[in-house]
Amino acid sequence: QYVFFRYDEGKCFYSTTNISKRQFPLIYTLPPDQNENLRLCVLKLAGQWSTATITNYLNSPNSDVPTSAVRILETLLKQALSPISHCEGSLFYRNEPKPDVSLPDGFELRLGFFQALCLTQAGLTLNLQTTLTKFYPHVDVLDFIEVHLNKDIRKYGMTINDYEKVKMALRGCKITTRQSNYTQIYQIRSFSDVPERQVFDFIKETHVNGQNLASPIKYNLIDYYKHEKKIKLDYPKLRCLQCYFLHERNDPKHLPIELCRILQWQECERESVAEQRNRQSHSIPTPEQRYIDIMSSLKSCQYRAPPTLPLCKAVQLSVDDKEMKLIKARILHPPVINNNNAEITMGRINLKGKFVEPFKLTSITFAYFGPIVSPLPAPKKILMEKFVTSFNKMATAFRLGPIQTCTRDAVHIVENEENRDKNLAAINTCFCYRKKQNCQLVVCIMDSNWNELRANIKQNGTVTYGIATQCLLYSKLQEQMDKFQRRPRGHPDRILDNMCENLLRKINFKMQGINTQVDLHIKTTASSGVASAKSKKEDAWQFMGADVIHPVCRQDKPSIAAVVGSGDSICSTSAVRVCKQWPKTGKCAIEAIIELRQMVGELLEYYREWNGQLANKIVFYRDGVDDGQFARVLNFEIPQIKAAFKDVYENQPLPLLTFIVVKKRHHTRFFIVNDRNETANISPGLVVDTDVVHPGQFSFFLNSHKALQGTNRPALYHVLHDEINFTSDELQLLTYYLCFTDPRSSTSEAIPSLIHQADLAASNARDLFPETDTSTTDGYAADALEEPTLIDIATEHLRVHDNMRDTPHFG
């Protein structure tokens, strides 16, 4: 008897045939067209699920979410698509040898799509999103290197810089080799020496007089391949690849480049900023093109009714692929900023040349960091002087000036590694002298490719001497002026004025001035008219945002957690606390913020010092939490926050807490049709809280920004804990308004500003921690920890200079 089943590529088989009444174990033979030699032994029936559980839950949502039934359907759909597409992770691609886009650096882009079944208020919904993914090409390593370097290395060889560049591109890439008939898989770590100098002892067995004799032979790789593998190396002057077997990471192998081929379907996850920009120029589709790609991908799945795929027939699944679902949405009005003295147009904020409370700058230094030649080239000198003049003019216009003491400094930076100590000493000397001069701010103009420059500037300013810094790339100055030369519009000084205005936003924020005041007094429209929110005059609000980056970590690459807290009830100022966390041994994923209790406690004290009282209502936004981690947040992080309340408030009434998870990395997109009958982006302020949101949770989509390119991705908000008892309208308005509170930005943000600041702090904090000895740590050889506990995790708080402790120094 034939049984219809599917395998999840793990430990489970799924069948739509009822086998519960049969005697186990059951033996099944696969059909000849799959594998005539493979038999399946079913030991026991692990469980039974019915699609009726999904229908019942959608009709009456409760705590028993049918996650298992949905997961099984998704697994079956994944297997159903295997004959018509290639699945890589959770993405599906057309199984064709030719890529969609070939990049100049040798990589390739392939159009794929993600699909997921979602439980929504409108029923079971298929969420499908397309993406262009960067892959390694399925070619010989030698061919890839030549394209990547744009150089004939067979003829001209490779320089030290070439090897360094290729190592960064290929590190972690999986390869196969000619001598294994392209079956044995290795993973690249680095480059080793040339084959001629790779000498080792080879044990050769010979048969003499009925006995097996083993005799050692000293070979280099050239002789080994010639005599033992019958392969002649044509390019012995090229270094070998240092690789390892996937499960033997402490035993490196040395393989000649010419014998290696890149394994197919490998996503490239390492990208420099320049590479990312180059890829995005090819890979960011317009809303119209993305809509077309999504619909064509959906039709290729053959989900239409009546179902044609065998699996879809078996579970009676069909998808309406004629058109995307039409849903209702609302547009929220933007907030009042600076008592209506600022204009908001499609998310852009025009301050009209005024800050609410400008910080008076009295002593400032413009420091040039780069190679110093005497005399300084005239074009560079003129541009620097124009920048300083424009900065002082704009500072006076925004009432941060006039600046009484404005000095200039130059720090000689050499880019090679041999001069590292001299560079560090020169930077330290600069800041030490400025500290003695009571300098408030150092504007650092960086004109060097030395990769440690910015980190050491921030280390001296933020940690050692407590001087505010604002970094600026000289190349950005030059780039703006070059653009004007190519396309002159207006006056060239206006370009510098615009740059200086953006810099002054950041500087005034760092110096604890106030750029904007967003009116967070919320009004909602109810059936009985306009009703004010539950906020009372005596209410004191504090807002917090938290994020964790690099959740899979080890000792040499710790996870960084950051929590940002507002200093007032309108979120015009803020402070940050940062902590790194890592496993004491091995590597693991740390999704939780281990030291959240202490970090929140310090931010509560910061609020009290700023206002003379503690807040009685706290709204906490948490980024970087997947759906499967909600229980961990409820069971660990919220109790940690509550414990911090008890530590700080002592005998006072504890504040009310609302905890919201923010998701930026999801696959839902919304489109509108504009007046020209074109598919276009949604507007800022659009909120969706019906149809496609979870049927049993307090959640909503909010698009708070205007996309500069590509398709808008609205943020998804899940309310996990709400003691303040917000209505949907109140919380949506509050969240939207908080997206306008980033003092650094001239536009509304995609997420509330505190989360954006926490993400920025976590990203920039890694270089500010004291250096630790990781020379004995090999990340490739680290074993993964299974179910780590708090005892297995080590933490360290970032300690900055006292002058910077309660300032937004990462702004």
TrEMBL record:
> Which region is the signal sequence?
none
Q: Which GO terms describe its molecular function?
A: RNA binding
SUPFAM superfamilies noted in UniProt: PAZ domain (SSF101690), Ribonuclease H-like (SSF53098)
The source's superkingdom equals Eukaryota
Q: Where is the PAZ domain?
A: 140-264
Which residues are in the Piwi domain? 441-770
Q: Which InterPro entries match?
A: ArgoL1, PAZ_dom, PAZ_dom_sf, Piwi, RNaseH-like_sf, RNaseH_sf
Q: What is this protein called?
A: Piwi domain-containing protein
